Amino acid sequence: MIPPLTHARRLALLVPAIALGGALGSQYLGGLYPCEMCHWQRWPHYAALALALVAFAVRGDRSVRPLVLLASLAIFVSGAIGVYHAGVEYRWWEGLTTCTGLATGGSSADIMKQILAAPIVRCDQPQWTLAGISLAGFNALFSIPAAIAIWVLCLKPR
């Protein structure tokens, strides 16, 4: 029987690898350009991937478990950012004005500066959805349960 920590370590490697593969594939193969918050979701997955790779390089449960738990925490953080980003996309709450805001007024020169400083890809406009769920929503639905599963597996006795 395979120990639960081994399953947790594998999940901690596969989850960010699949998430980043999907994100990078949709960007470079699918032509979907990421907004600022999309990049925010990627950084924790990069960290989780690095931590999981190190967890495969070290030996002993006492060394592996903390690395896998940290990787799962990073995966959870990415999912939490996905919840925030999806909420901005669905207009449940307001996002950061630098990522979502429109010109708010002032002189014509001020409005022109605001327009020119606006991001090319807005964070409050999903570029792609499936059944009404954006990529940020899928990240949340995928990452948070995976992180919880990794935690549970890490905490199970051998």
Verbal overview:
The structure is a single chain. With 158 residues, the chain is mainly alpha-helical. It has one domain (4-93, 103-130, 145-155). It has 6 helices and 2 strands, in the order αααααββα. It has helices at 4-28, 36-57, 61-89, 97-100, 108-117, 135-155, and strands at residues 129-130, 133-134. It has a two-stranded antiparallel ribbon with strand order 1-2. It is elongated, with a radius of gyration of 19 Å. The N and C termini lie close together (10 Å).
Shape category = elongated
Strand order of the largest sheet: 1-2
The assigned structural class equals: mainly alpha
How can the largest sheet be summarized?
2 strands, antiparallel
Mean pLDDT: 87
Residue share in β-strands: under 5%
Between the first and last Cα atoms, what is the distance in angstroms?
Answer: 10 Å
Total domains: 1
Q: What is the gyration radius calculated from CA atoms? A: 19 Å
- Write down the secondary-structure element order: HHHHHEEH
Count of DSSP helices? 6
The percent range for helix content is over 70%
Q: Give the uncertain stretches in residue-range form.
A: none
